[in-house]
Design goal:
The protein is of the alpha+beta class. Helices cover 29% and strands 31% of the residues. Helix 2 runs antiparallel to helix 3.
C-alpha cells in the first residue's frame, strides 16, 4: 500500500527572504527614526520660551542717600486678647442658666408686688368706709383699727417687694455680666497672628497656676497700622527728621523698593547700643508686607541729584554675567538681541547702565538661563 504524498508540504526556496533584503528594511527603519528624532529636536529647540520684559528708563536724577539702617516691620496696634474669667473652657451654658433663674425670680417678685398693690387699693377703700361708719358710731373702734392696720401692712409688704425686685434686677445684671465675660471681644479689627492657648488649657486674666495657665488666648494685629522701626546710631541721628523721605527694601523682596516717610523719632536713646529708634510709615501698604519682616532703610536727602545724559537705569534681574562681562537681552520683533553693556553705580534694586542701552528699549528681566542671540520668544502678559 502506497503512503501519503508529502510533496505538497515543501516550501519553495525562492520564497524565502534574502539577508540583503532584510538589511535594507532595517536601514530604512533606522533612517526614519533618525529623521523623526531630528525633526522633534528641531521643533523642541525652536519652541519659543516665555520671558518678561521691562523698559530701560532714562536717569531722571535721584535723591542722595544720607544714611542706611536696618530694622523690622512692626504694627502700631498689637494686642493680646484674654478672657475676663478663669476657666478651662469658655462655656456660657452655666451663665445662661443663672441669668434665666434671676429673670424668673424677678418676674415672680414683680407679680407678687402687683398683687399686693391690688390688695392695698382694696384695703384703703375698706378703711375709708369703716372710718366713716366709725364716725357715725355704727361700728366699734377695734374694727376700724383692723382695717387701718391692714392698709399699713400692705404698704410695708409692697416696700419689701419693691426692694426684692431691685435685688433681683441686680442679680440679672450680674448674671448678664457673667454671660458677657464668656465672650472674648477684640479691641479692634485685625488679623490673629498667634494662637497662644490650646483647646483644654486653663485661661485666666491674671497669672496663676504656674506654667499651666495662659493669660492670653490670641495675639491680634491691625494690618493697616504696619510701619518700619529701625535703630539709628546716635552719631547720625541729626540727619533724620520728621517727614523725611526714605526707601525701604524688605529682605524677602530685595528687588522691591518701597517709598516711605519718617513718622517720628523716639525721644529716648538706648544706652547699651548707643542707638535711637526711628519709626517710618509706608506711603502705601501691600499684602506682601507682613509683621516682623526684616527691612533695610535708606534715608534720602531733600534735593535730587542732576540727571546724567545718556545713562539709563535697569533692574538687577536684567543683567547677566558672561565671562565677567555684563550682558542684557533686548527684545526686537519677537526675537532676542544679545547686547554687552557697561554698568555704573547701583541704586537700590536698579543698576546704572553707562553705555549699550537707550531709553525705552525693552529688555528681558525674567526667562530661562539658556536664552541666546536671535532666539524667538513669547512675551508674558
Amino acid at each position: 500500500m502506497d503512503g501519503p504524498d508529502l510533496s505538497a508540504l515543501k516550501i519553495d526556496e525562492r520564497a524565502r527572504p534574502t539577508p540583503r533584503r532584510g538589511r535594507r528594511v532595517l536601514v530604512a527603519a533606522l533612517v526614519i527614526v533618525l529623521v523623526g528624532a531630528a525633526a522633534g529636536w528641531t521643533m523642541f529647540r525652536e519652541q519659543a520660551p516665555e520671558v518678561q520684559l521691562t523698559a530701560a528708563r532714562a536717569d531722571a536724577g535721584t535723591r542722595p542717600a544720607l544714611l542706611n539702617a536696618s530694622g523690622y516691620v512692626t504694627p502700631r496696634r498689637r494686642a493680646t486678647v484674654a478672657a475676663k474669667i478663669t476657666a478651662a473652657r469658655l462655656d456660657d451654658s452655666d451663665a445662661k442658666v443663672r441669668l434665666a433663674s434671676a429673670v424668673a425670680d424677678r418676674d415672680a417678685v414683680a407679680a407678687a408686688l402687683q398683687d399686693l398693690r391690688v390688695n392695698l387699693a382694696n384695703a384703703e377703700r375698706e378703711w375709708k368706709r369703716n372710718d366713716q361708719l366709725f364716725k357715725r358710731g355704727l361700728i366699734a373702734e377695734q374694727q376700724a383699727d383692723q382695717m387701718r392696720t391692714a392698709v399699713l401692712s400692705y404698704q410695708a409688704r409692697i416696700a419689701l417687694a419693691e426692694e426684692q425686685v431691685k435685688a433681683a434686677e441686680a442679680k440679672i445684671r450680674m448674671a448678664q455680666q457673667d454671660l458677657d465675660n464668656c465672650l472674648v471681644r477684640a479691641p479692634f479689627a485685625g488679623i490673629v497672628v498667634s494662637k497662644d492657648a490650646q483647646r483644654g488649657e486653663m485661661v485666666s486674666p491674671i497669672s496663676a497656676g504656674g506654667g499651666f495657665t495662659r493669660t492670653g488666648i490670641a495675639t491680634l494685629v491691625d494690618m493697616s497700622s504696619l510701619e518700619i522701626e529701625v535703630d539709628v546710631n546716635e552719631s547720625y541721628i541729626a540727619r533724620v527728621r520728621d517727614g523725611q523721605p526714605v526707601v525701604a527694601v524688605l529682605d524677602a523682596y530685595p528687588d522691591w523698593q518701597i517709598p516711605a516717610r519718617v513718622r517720628t523719632v523716639i525721644p529716648s536713646a538706648d544706652r547699651q547700643k548707643a542707638t535711637v529708634k526711628v519709626r517710618a510709615a509706608f506711603e502705601r501698604l501691600d499684602p506682601r508686607i507682613l509683621p516682623d519682616m526684616g527691612v533695610k532703610v535708606t534715608f534720602l536727602g531733600d534735593k535730587p541729584t542732576r540727571p546724567t545724559a545718556g545713562r539709563v537705569l535697569v533692574p538687577k534681574a536684567a543683567l547677566r554675567d558672561e565671562g565677567g562681562a555684563a550682558v542684557v537681552f533686548v527684545h526686537r520683533d519677537g526675537r532676542l538681541e544679545r547686547r554687552r553693556v557697561t554698568t555704573g553705580d547701583t541704586r537700590g534694586a536698579e543698576v546704572e547702565v553707562v553705555a549699550g542701552l537707550a531709553d525705552g528699549e525693552p529688555i528681558v528681566t525674567a526667562g530661562p538661563k539658556t536664552l541666546r542671540d536671535g532666539q524667538r520668544v513669547t512675551v508674558k502678559r
